[in-house]
Amino acid sequence: MPNCSESAGLDEDRLTHYVQNVKVRLKDGREVFFDKNGDPPTVYDIVNWQLGDDGVMKQVKVGEYNLTTNSPDVLTLNRTAIQWIYRRRQVPTSVCSKSCSPGFRKAPLRGQPACCYQCVPCPQGEISNQTDSVDCFRCPWDKWPNLQRNSCDPKPIEFLSYEQPLGATLAGSGISSFTVPLSILGLYLKKKDTPIVKANNYSLSCLLLICLSFCFLSSLTFIGYPRSSKCLLRQATFGMVFALCISCVLAKTVMVVFAFMATKPGSRLKKWATLRVSYGIIFVCSLMQFILCASWMTISPPFPEDDVQTQPGTLIAECNEGSRAAFWCMIGYLSLLAFISFVVAFLARSLPDTFNETKFITFSMLAFLSVWISFIPASISTRGRYAIAMEVFAIIFSAWALVICMFLPKCFIILFRPNMNSKEHLLGKLRNKTLL
């Protein structure tokens, strides 16, 4: 005989079986039935609380959710019948924050629901190009965000260009200055038989003028887009032509001393006061600079590179010097030659030289050293086109210092005081200095 629990289970199963087969149609046409679990089908009315004209709240049916229908649309909704707050027909925003436009990202608010956030601008160098972006992403190395920070634009390239006012001014100065030493050379060739030209080592003066014209031209190699060939040659060209110039000045200074010492009775320096010795000084001093530059170009040559760190929004096209130590050694060697010339000329300034060329050399070397000593802190504190402009300015200004101090007084005498450019004046002035 079955126990009570088994009997109850059988009755439940029979009831569920009968219920599953029950189908009743109501007066409104709806059909009531039960699923396999004995549950009635889901039918919900969607109502909207609305304020009537009489000020009473009432429920208005605006749709339903009905699983008894054979239609695939189990959810029906009459949107026009819905009234929102203050009887508005527009659906209110379901979030407590407005959408974030491109250029911003969503940042959650602490202690607020997930729908509450604040729009934070993308950080420097990053963009967002979608509405309600969660994250910002960084631009490629050669691009930078626009003002709205919603797209990456190519970075402007900065270098000392001929099209810029600064570059055009420096280039014009270099080209116009190039003609000055050549004009003085033409004047020297025309007046080569005059005492003032002969008295100051005519051949070395001509060589120095030719080198000075190339010094002005070497400044042009620093202007324009820094390509591989330009980066490789510009510093070496500048170093070599200036080494040749300062070597000529040093040779002229040494020759003045030798010439004076050779006039003393019994002096053995007469054999050293020749052009061969002066050319030997120029060759040895220039050879040292050539070895230094050749080693630099071979071991660690300069090369073009793009600087993206100094100015984040600008791509600075420049020449990497390869070895900064080699660069400063080249500048230091030029300064050493200039310093030696300055010391020798300063010590020989009181010698009875007719046109006081040692004094001119002293002033020219002092100006040369002042320019390049001032260039050191300026080159360290600046980058980009302004650093290049500073070096170009130093090249042009130091070359002008040599032209003005060493040749302008002589040109003034040749052109405007021809009576002083005579043998009688030369001997008279020399005699007066000897008596003093």
Would you give an account of this structure?
Helices cover 50% and strands 14% of the residues. With 436 residues, the chain is α+β, with helices and mostly antiparallel strands. Helix 4 packs antiparallel against helix 5 (228-262) and helix 4 (202-218) packs antiparallel against helix 9. The strands form six sheets. The protein has a three-stranded antiparallel sheet, with no helix packed on it. It has a three-stranded mixed sheet with strand order 12-14-13. It has helices spanning 4-20, 165-190, 195-198, 202-218, 228-262, 275-299, 324-347, 357-381, 385-416, 423-435; strands spanning 23-25, 31-33, 43-51, 57-66, 75-77, 104-108, 117-121, 126-127, 137-138, 143-145, 152-154, 157-158, 303-307, 315-320. The chain folds into three domains: 28-89, no CATH class; 104-154, no CATH class; 159-435, Up-down Bundle (Rhopdopsin 7-helix transmembrane proteins). It has ten helices and 14 strands.
Strand arrangement across the biggest beta sheet: 3-4-5
Which strand-content bin applies to the residues?
5-15%
Number of helices: 10
CATH class of the largest domain, named Mainly Alpha
Mean pLDDT: 81
Query: How many separate structural domains?
Result: 3
Which term fits the overall shape? Answer: rod-shaped
Question: Which helices and strands occur, and which strands form pairs?
Answer:
Layout: H1 4-20, E1 23-25, E2 31-33, E3 43-51, E4 57-66, E5 75-77, E6 104-108, E7 117-121, E8 126-127, E9 137-138, E10 143-145, E11 152-154, E12 157-158, H2 165-190, H3 195-198, H4 202-218, H5 228-262, H6 275-299, E13 303-307, E14 315-320, H7 324-347, H8 357-381, H9 385-416, H10 423-435
Parallel strand pairs: 12-14
Antiparallel strand pairs: 1-2, 3-4, 4-5, 6-7, 8-9, 10-11, 13-14
